[in-house]
Fold each of these.
Amino acid sequence: MTEPLIYELSSAGRTAIEMPAPDVEKAEIPASLEREELPLPELSEIDVVRHFTRLSQLNHGVDTGFYPLGSCTMKYNPKINEEVARLPGFALTHPLQDTALLQGNLALMYAVQQWLMEIGGFRAVSLQPAAGAQGELTGILIIRAYHEDRGDTKRNRILVPDSAHGTNPASIAMSGMEVVEVPSDPRGNIDIEALRSQCGDTIAGLMLTNPNTLGLFEEHVHEVIQLVHDSGGLVYGDGANMNALLGVVRPGDLGFDILHYNLHKTFSTPHGGGGPGAGPVGVAAHLADFLPSPIVDIVEVGDENVPPLYGLVEPAKSVGRMKLFHGHFGVLVRAYTYMRMQGNEGLRDIADHAVLNANYLRVKLQDAYHIPYDRICMHEFVAEGKWDDAPEVHALDISKRLMDFGFHPPTNYFPLIVPEALMIEPTETESKQTLDAFVEAMRQIAREAREDPEILTTAPHETPFGRMDEVRAARQLVLCCWPVDE
Amino acid sequence: MAFIPHTDEERRAMFEAIGVEGFEDFYQIIPENVRFPDFDLPGAVTEMEIAAELQALAEVNLNMRHVACFLGAGAYNHFIPAAVDEILHRNEFYTAYTPYQPEISQGTLQAIFEYQSLMVNLTGMDVSNASHYDGATAFAEGVIMALNVHHGKRKKVVLSAAIHPQYRQVVRTYTRGAGLSLVDDGAIDNDAQTLIETLDESTALVAVQYPDFFGRIQDWTALGEAAHEVGALFCVVVNPLALGLLKPPGAFGADIVVGDGQPLGIPLSFGGPSLGIFTTLEKYVRKMAGRLVGETVDSRGQRGYVLTLAPREQHIRREKATSNICTNQGLMALAATVYLSLMGKQGLRSVAELCFHKAHAAAKRIAALDGYRLWNTGDFFHEFVIECPRDVKTINERLLEWDIIGGYDLGRDYAELEQHMLIAVTEMVSEAEIDDLAAALKAVSHD
């Protein structure tokens, strides 16, 4: 099944795209700066199209099969999203054009800001962050700027539960602040006493994922937030799991000061094989001035006959610019489309069915798999991928074997607080039939673990590729291919 | 209910299996006073309605199909072969997640491996990561890498003032907590000797842009050597398309090359999503942020690809990671890979040459006009600066009457460049449009 590399397909002198001859006089290319060798492949258009089509066929995507990857919210990506994002009126606009001539773009962005504020219960939103992790960094920079602005400069520590995604501590470290880990209690909540002992006048804030990465809603959420607020800290919400809360509760109403949204998770924009995402940040009123610039605002109020004039503005105490231009606009168009199609009433349906599907899988699997925090979950849950009577089988083997049934595995080995974790998030767009087929496969795997463990430890068998030697990849680093004819 | 497949019958069966009466039972844990808030969002619309709504909204904008575009400044209107978007439309690519499970992700993994190879060869460096969000964030990660290479002991970072202002702003935001001495307010003439004189033993990194923000190109070998003499890293911010024609920064002794990949087959899309290119030397591979794909073999002896060197990354190292970056720009990296495969050795050179020749033809025509002067001295690629007889905003407003989007108003970022316009010329502009621009500029030079 090995597909040659583009450089291996190359044949000297072959071309795909021909450009027109220059219609102006030629200028002299400075000899000292002219490139001698341009080591790019030489292919025909059909070579290129077949190559990438064949590569695409080696991928599993949401459109090819069930993708219960925990905390990633691999829901269906509506096709209309793709079509509208490519409209020339959006796709062929330059970021530095006069905004007076791009009022369509700005109106769309303004609406996305407003709706995210409404959905999250916040006063202001910046659409600039490019992804969840950049939203986190933005949030941490805002927390620091807020304390500094108040002259409260000794706050340099941020609390993170041990169940948090790895980006949380990494984002804190990147901002130059110190990470303080807080343990979980036996029910999967933050350990309140441990939290209390850490709160104090050096705490800048807490990063909280709610529902957490066990798929559990924090039972003492009010108390947790109150403790941090009472000690003078701010509470940052990681919105990775927002799919469970749409229309159910607004993080701003719970007391969160900041939250990032993942448009590629909650709002149906495609993951693109690892990006682009979008990680807008919402904040409560006291933090609105610190948002990254620019944000879209109404600069001239309209009336019945004249639409308002939108412009790009810089918040008064902005933490600065997080990336080039105005955020991932193409992703925003997709999210706008999705939000409009759901509307006021549809949001709650999303959360309801995401939670329904997760709980259904949880109860259907609980006799075959140990589920360590076994209570009503939100949009996902974590099972243990191991059994005492099948010692040679690990979560990884279960994952690899699932591929033989046409399913993408759950998230493996995360969260770190559950041994051999299998984190399962079905999303609302999957039908009962799909879930039942998944349950059947999982049960068969549990049987195989006892009866024929080797079929698991050598899986997958039906996929175009077998298990990859990851150790070799790291030891004998080969990170690029060179032109074959050199 | 858009995109939710459940029937009433199935919902009932599922509630029963779980042992709940209905949806409300799932949420008992949520504080009652804030449960089920009222929303003030517009009502739902159908696919047919949203398609019409967005068509109308898109038509409010002035897009490139209706004008000749001379605006660049970090985002460029280039030709994109039809096959690029055809491949991006493959749902196996765009509906996949990060390739953590290599056995069923070889499409994404091999494409990234090929992307890394193309970037290495284009920039003349040793290794490339799987991409950053855009050129500016890639640049910020480059600065952070240089600080880490020096274990945080060197705090001085020298950025040429002729680097894109937004790139420098992002570096400032990203490094706010690092206690840096950031030198980026030097002269905009980009004189290598002046930059060399700012370097000392406390310098972690010196960076220039090539072509610079004003379009100028020059040989940076002397600066690279001077940087290495004081033990600093040398970073070059590039426009990857220009490297179809120009010597790669690897030839100048660059340690880090970053740039925005938008010119390589990615639509303008109001500035995002784009692609952040990051290449460096082999010796820094473990200091580099971002995802990385490496070659290996599978259990059946087939060549394959996996994400590798994960111990640098946040999901393993948490607060000790090289960066917090999690996603890359997978689909945009794929676009650049397909674009470069299609253009190939000859095509990319042709595009770069077209840009070069057309820009020089435009500069010559405009510089010949009364009241306009070419500000650049020396060589340039496809952008140049014109000193204008009046303010750029007024000129640009008037150019629209000619169906022309004029250049970037440099007075917005550089006080000394009031009445200076940065003009970009790509292969998309015809000679007739260049003549139109010259005629229009002549006509609008005064009331």
Amino acid sequence: MASLSVMESHEGPGRPATEMAPGEAASAISAIDASRSWLADRIIAPGWYHLAFGVLAGSAIAEAEIRNWALFGWSVTAYTAGCSALAWWNQRRVGVAMEYFDCRTRAVFAGHVLTLSGLIAIACWLGLDRGTHGAFLAAGALAVPLTVAFGRWTDKLLRTRLQASW
Amino acid sequence: MSTAARFDEIVHAPNRLQICAILSAVSSADFAAVREGLGVADSVLSKHIRVLHEAGYIDVRKSTCASRVRTSMSMTAAGRAAYDGHLAALRAIVSNEGFHADGCRGDWLAQPPGLEGTPASA
């Protein structure tokens, strides 16, 4: 029985139906697996990426401690521009476009936004209503590890999805 | 959702199988990223992309950014169906279910005369 090697290239019409041994089919599937693993590794952001997002968010929140709302407006603008620049750079680095958001990653993202919003709300209540000093600084400091944690959680979900989807 | 197993000669070549594996997971991928994933030369990748493109399995787009031409590719619906079918065929072979290369499950691993009743993979 002729066996079809996965290392061969098969081109041209009319090639007769050929048989493949299960081991060779398994090798082809392993190659697919390796490609998906490579893709998952490539898409996962470097460690400092989420830290940079966290520092941007934390700085914008902590800056409210100064109570200068014009400056706060600028810091929010800088935060938006910084996030956009980071996302653009990551997109260029990865070289692929994909649907980052499915139901799970969307839920994690929503959880991240709600957590930061809650943190800001508590800081406002403590800092503005009750006059507690350092509330925004503390909230900003907390925002950094929270952002890193949510970012890594999203990466983990993306990796699982990429490796499981075939 | 199950996909009908269909062995696809175009998808089957190792490099093209890997290209399809990458493109099936993303919306689009840059030429440079795919080349890096496969570890092949530009000319080799171009050849395989041309085969997939001519088969209608992938779309190729070129855009200019800062005076540099950027080539990106994405899988078409036909390409996705062919890849999924091919993958199902590979799985069928691995699981020893028996698969016929014309796309029909059957006695693809049928035994030569005189060996009936023995395992197909023996």
